[in-house]
Specification:
With about 170 residues, the chain is of the alpha/beta class. Helix content is about 45%, strand content about 15%. The protein is built from six helices and six strands. Helix 2 runs parallel beside helix 3. The relative contact order is 0.12.
């Protein structure tokens, strides 16, 4: 496939279940990818019911600190994708807003614990990406539109915002 980057989903539940195996598997993955000329962008997945409950967010600090300590010096680490599609799936506005707030919180936490590695949030839609644009180093969104014309329009909108914000954008 001639890939040069991979984005891999990392469930926090795996860290909860077995920290030693979690560290070993991720280190092995990054080293195997790097040996093949690929960078890795770990994408965090959280307990779904906790993203809307701000009182639970601080509990992730230990897992994120451990993840950062494990991977931050790995040459295959490209960026942290701190949350996948917080704006996904036509959510009710209150849920969408809480998930975006959670994503921004996690971006700040990653920046605090690893001020070197770039941070992104993989949004579903360009408006969510723009809403959280100040919290990330790399803008990113995933376009599931059904026509090339709509996709091109979204890309143009994202590129215009990226130019204004002075940040790279990934689609």
């Amino acid at each position: 496939l001639e890939l040069n980057q991979v984005r891999v989903m990392i469930p926090i539940a795996a860290w909860d279940a077995n920290k030693t195996a979690f560290r070993r598997a991720l280190t092995d993955l990054l080293r195997a990818a790097q040996a093949r000329g690929m960078g890795v962008m770990p994408t965090l997945q959280y307990h779904r019911d906790e993203m809307a409950d701000e009182s639970t967010w601080p509990k992730y600090r230990d897992a994120i600190a451990d993840l950062v300590a494990t991977l931050r010096n790995e040459p295959g680490l490209f960026a942290w994708d701190v949350q996948n599609e917080p704006d996904c799936c036509n959510l009710p506005e209150a849920v969408r807003s809480a998930r975006i707030k959670h994503a921004i919180y996690m971006a700040k936490l990653f920046h605090e614990l690893d001020p070197v590695t770039p941070v992104t949030i993989g949004f579903t839609y360009v408006p969510g990406m723009i809403e959280a644009g100040d919290a990330v180093d790399i803008l990113s969104f995933h376009d599931y539109s059904t026509t090339r014309a709509v996709i091109d329009a979204h890309i143009d909108e994202a590129k215009a915002y990226a130019a204004k914000a002075g940040k790279p954008v990934l689609v």
